[in-house]
Amino acid sequence: MFICNHCPFVVHVKDEIVKIANEYLKKGVGFVAINSNDIVKYPEDSPYNMLKFAVKYKFSFPYLFDETQKIAKAYGAACTPDFFLFDKNLKLIYRGQLDDSRPANKKTVTGKDLRIALDRVIKEQAQKREQKPSIGCNIKWK
């Protein structure tokens, strides 16, 4: 997943991301968060502040800094949060939103869309054809 510290969309779902990771790590699913933002223009997303953010919210997964932004470009990441799910053969099988909740729409954060995708990959079932794209802050390119 691509996230950052300052995006209101990430801040809105951060607790659910941690909850999902903790739940699915026990089921053998690995998680990695990547921050690709330009830290010159957005110093709140610096590696030091990433560490503080990860500790404060008790991340149980690596939170990596993509200084060159090559990883985000290779994935075609567009925003934060942006979720990518791969099967056991490292084939991309889900790219989409966490759920329908947004900071301003008053819907409860459930992680429904990502949870469905995770359950399907664990059961080796085909993914739903419709995958709603993530909505959030654009990645802050250099």
Question: Keywords for this structure?
Answer:
142 residues, 4 helices, alpha+beta, 6 strands, two-stranded antiparallel ribbon, Glutaredoxin
Describe the protein in words:
This protein has 142 residues and is an alpha+beta fold. The chain has one domain (8-138): 3-Layer(aba) Sandwich (Glutaredoxin). The protein has four helices and six strands, in the order αβαβαβββαβ. It has helices at 8-25, 47-56, 70-75, 112-122; strands at residues 33-35, 63-65, 79-80, 83-86, 92-96, 137-138. The strands form three sheets. The chain has a two-stranded parallel sheet. A two-stranded antiparallel sheet has the order 3-6. Strands 4-5 form a two-stranded antiparallel ribbon. A hairpin with a 5-residue loop joins strand 4 and strand 5 (92-96). The longest helix has 18 residues, at 8-25. The chain is globular, with a radius of gyration of 14 Å.
Cα-atom radius of gyration: 14 Å
Helix content: 25-40%
Quick one: how many beta strands? 6
Oligomerization state: single chain
Number of helices: 4
* Main sheet: strand order: 1-2
Q: How would you characterize the largest beta sheet?
A: 2 strands, parallel
At CATH level 3, the topology is Glutaredoxin
Instruction: Give the overall form.
Output: globular
Query: What is the H level of CATH, i.e. the homologous superfamily?
Result: Glutaredoxin
The figure for the number of domains is 1
Question: What is the CATH-assigned architecture?
Answer: 3-Layer(aba) Sandwich
Question: Class, according to the CATH hierarchy?
Answer: Alpha Beta
Strand content: 5-15%
Low-confidence stretches: none
Average pLDDT metric: 96
Task: Return the structural class.
Answer: alpha+beta
Terminal CA distance? 20 Å
Which H/E pattern describes the elements? HEHEHEEEHE
